[in-house]
TrEMBL record:
<protein>
    <submittedName>
        <fullName>NAD-dependent epimerase/dehydratase family protein</fullName>
    </submittedName>
</protein>
<dbReference type="InterPro" id="IPR036291">
    <property type="entry name" value="NAD(P)-bd_dom_sf"/>
</dbReference>
<feature type="domain" description="NAD-dependent epimerase/dehydratase">
    <location>
        <begin position="9"/>
        <end position="57"/>
    </location>
</feature>
<dbReference type="InterPro" id="IPR001509">
    <property type="entry name" value="Epimerase_deHydtase"/>
</dbReference>
<dbReference type="Pfam" id="PF01370">
    <property type="entry name" value="Epimerase"/>
</dbReference>
Length: 58
């Protein structure tokens, strides 16, 4: 599988120093579907929330 500018990219920890830099860099390189959920939107410890988030952002 290869990544293109049309790929959906989930950035966990996007509100932190490294995560926010990753989001900015991906957007600067033209990636259009960067998904930077915060803790309120997505609890990675909840399988149900993860499945729901991915269904919504397919």
């Amino acid at each position: 599988m290869s990544m293109t500018i049309h790929s959906r990219i989930l950035v966990a920890g996007s509100s932190g120093l490294i995560g926010s830099a990753c989001v900015r860099t991906l957007q600067q390189f033209g990636y259009r579907h960067v998904l930077p959920p915060n803790r309120n939107e997505l609890d990675l410890f909840s399988e149900e929330q993860v499945q729901s988030y991915f269904q919504k952002h397919r």
